[in-house]
Amino acid sequence: IDQLAELASHPALARDARRTALRLLARYADERADALSDVETERLMVALGAHDASLTRAFALRRSWSAHDPEALVPAAAPTAAQTIAHLLQREALSDAVSALRQARAESAHADAAGSLYAAAWLAACTEDQEVAREGTLLLAQLLRHGTRAPHGGFLRLARALEGPHPALASLALERAAARREPSALEALGTVLVEQAWRAYGEGDRAAALRALRRADRLACETVHVAPP
To answer: What percent of the chain shows pLDDT beyond 70?
Structure first.
């Protein structure tokens, strides 16, 4: 999954090669939807969402949820908040999904939230229903500001998935990635800061431009001294 996701986004590859990698990733998600683990599901949702939110929605609808065998010796585990949200979105039970998202946000304000919630919140934020999308965005913002656990695949990958539809959340995710010293995160944040500096300069805000450039310079120095993982 990770290798195909990287190839689908690799700037050095030809467009046709990137599209081929994305098609293979989508085919893998479609063919193995019933057999994927929760971790694989979350990684695929983030990877597909980085390219097209409709791919994420299609994958969620394709994903099946098997009923528990009543004759099983071991009781079925209660679904996690992330599983509940994804299941409700799959069934298009939007009002229930809104309630589940609000409950997850309330609970995560007082307890350490699982990393899997990022994927569920992202899936909600990509929906066409405005209320569901709003609650997904609010949950993502809370997790990015206060959550102590990282999403599967890291904050940098989440930032790249968010930068198109949700640039403010993408900035938060990028800051978290840089704070955790994720590979390439400091360089990515430095690039964003330089872009912000040019934008501020063009808008006549010289002070903001200088602040962004100074921070970009500090990050460049940190990048030189950070040992490779």
So the answer is: 76
Q: Which residues contact 20 (CB under 8 A, 6 or more apart)?
A: none
> How many other CB atoms are found less than 10 A from the CB of residue 146?
11
Are 222 and 187 in contact, with CB atoms under 8 Å apart? no
pLDDT tens profile 99-109 = 999 999 998 87
Q: How far is CA 215 from CA 179, 192, 226, in A?
A: 14, 11, 16
- Tell me: pLDDT of 145 over 70: yes
Integer Cα distance of 44 and 56 in angstroms: 8
For the stretch 114-131, pLDDT in tens is 778 888 898 888 888 999
What would the two tokens of residue 176 be? 């978290």
Tell which residue, 132, 226, 131, has the closest CA to residue 183.
226
H, E, C per residue of the chain = CHHHHHHHHCCCCCHHHHHHHHHHHHHHHHHCCCCCCHHHHHHHHHHHHCCCHHHHHHHHHHCCCCCCCCCCCCCCCCCCHHHHHHHHHHCCCHHHHHHHHHHHHHHHCCCCCCCHHHHHHHHHHCCCCHHHHHHHHHHHHHHHHHCCCCCCCCHHHHHHHHCCCCHHHHHHHHHHHHHCCCCCHHHHHHHHHHHHHHHHHHCCCHHHHHHHHHHHHHHHHHHHHCCCC
| Two structure tokens written together for 157 | 């990958």
